[in-house]
Design a protein that fits this description.
2 copies of one chain form a homodimer. The first copy, chain A, is about 40% helix and about 20% strand. By secondary structure, chain A is an alpha/beta fold. Chain A has 2 domains: about 100 residues, Ribosomal protein L30/S12 (60s Ribosomal Protein L30, Chain: A); about 160 residues, 3-Layer(aba) Sandwich (Alpha/beta knot), CATH 3.40.1280. A 6-stranded parallel sheet of chain A has the order 8-7-6-10-9-11. A 5-stranded mixed sheet of chain A has the order 1-4-3-5-2. Chain A is elongated. Chains A and B meet through α6 and α10 of A and α6 and α10 of B.
Chain lengths: ~270, ~270
């Protein structure tokens, strides 16, 4: 196994550049940290190189699997690990991954679209929730937190590797494209109709807006309906990730209901 | 208006003690910060003293209202404000509040109970979500983050003032008491029955456990059913506040459905 001890090693210096958004975009590479994310990256086939500390026992299984798959595994010093890690106490394993090729619009009955969701924790958490609910894809409009920043990746808890996520330059245009193909495009907006009473048919795209300013005007115009969660008590609003989670799971519940009641099959027969 | 410029002023020193959990508990007093929380504290009738910076224009309305209500309003220097604030940039207004007298068990159809939820942001966010959904009360078991710490208060976004929140020394005992009175006590646990298929009748208590360890054994034994959200995709779990939010809103949706379909009235007639 290759061993690197110096933080000035050119390969390490090249990896260190990936802590910057611009360098990640240009090289289409990113780093994930910790045994859990390493396992997910390996399972997704996106891992290229594994860096492991000498004493990272919890990470040995992932390193062994990487080696068996013919990937480059490098043992590095604590100093090297610290120079690459975003955590105060590095987790002993880092993977260099390539970004997935993802140029086709996500398909399937349930898609999540984020319009300038700024907080990396929110972007990651919403992707994680969409994955848990069985959504089939995510669209990231411009102005969203960088998907491949350590904070976003960590909030996805591995879901970044589970479903297609497409960054689009013009979210309104992508939504219009999906609407033309028959999808309900649900803009979640203050003052919208009660989310529970209006029940758009599948396929549906749930659009979540910026934490402070909501959905942009252009994206709102591309929507086929405008819904909001009811506020029954004294609270004026919900936490952004919580609101998204409630709507994501409600859409999944309806989709399952439609599926099990056979409505979906009927709709298809009528086409 | 009284003016205090020195951080060594005895009244300011007494207030500064309230940044400690123990002193808050003993005095049954706490501080809230910012114009929004100040308005909520005033509306709830729990505010005793208002401290305002000279140039806090956004807070003037709250200060005027406090003065009109006969409360003590003190103009303080920036140094005094900074010595009491938890924020890097203080928001210009602080209120000394008394904790509400709350000794009766919360009543009503929907109650949230937290069992050793550790993260202040989670405790605050879950209270905010319960408020938004129209829940009628919250029980905090031992081991939960301090309700009156600045982080918890800020995550409630004012909901701390909207619904009864009772700290109980023995959550299992309180839950058994509610179960004896006819409430379904729903423990949310990995491996539980599908939350959407099992449909406990109202009144219900939703119990959320610790972020890492879930619900304690004793509390779990006090539950009348054990439910979990379905994981349909690749994610293993949900963010704690998101999972709580999904279940809180689903319970509120069912409650509304029962109410509008008249089932609840029928059940009562049968009693």
């Amino acid at each position: 196994m290759k061993v690197i001890e110096s933080i000035r090693n050119p390969q390490i210096q090249a990896l260190r550049k990936l802590t910057r958004t611009r360098d990640r975009r240009e090289s289409r590479r990113f780093l994930v940290e910790g045994p859990r994310m390493a396992e997910e990256a390996l399972a997704a086939g996106l891992c290229e190189t594994v860096l492991i500390s000498r004493f990272a026992e919890r990470s040995q299984a992932a390193a062994d699997r990487a080696e068996a798959a013919g990937l480059e595994v490098i043992q590095v010093s604590e100093a090297v690990m610290e120079s690459l890690s975003e955590n105060r106490t590095p987790q002993g394993i880092l993977c260099l991954c390539r970004m997935p090729e993802q140029e086709q619009m996500p398909e399937g009955p349930l898609i999540l679209a984020l319009d300038a969701v700024q907080n990396p924790g929110n972007v990651g958490t919403m992707i994680r929730t969409a994955d848990a609910a069985g959504f089939t894809g995510v669209l990231l409009g411009s102005g969203c937190a960088d998907l491949y920043s350590p904070k976003t990746l960590s909030a996805t808890m591995g879901s970044v590797f589970h479903l297609p996520i497409l960054s689009v330059p013009d979210l309104a245009q992508s939504l219009m494209f999906l609407a033309e193909k028959g999808a309900a495009v649900i803009a979640t907006e203050l003052g919208g109709e009660d989310f529970y009473h209006a029940c758009p048919p599948s396929p549906s795209v749930l659009v979540i807006g910026n934490e402070g300013n909501g959905i942009s005007e252009k994206v709102s115009r591309a929507a086929t309906c405008h819904l909001a969660l009811p506020m029954r008590g004294g609270a004026e609003s919900l936490n952004a990730s919580v609101a998204a989670g409630i709507m994501i799971y409600e859409m999944a519940r309806r989709e399952e209901q439609r599926f099990s009641s056979g409505t979906q099959t009927k709709e298809k027969e009528n086409d």
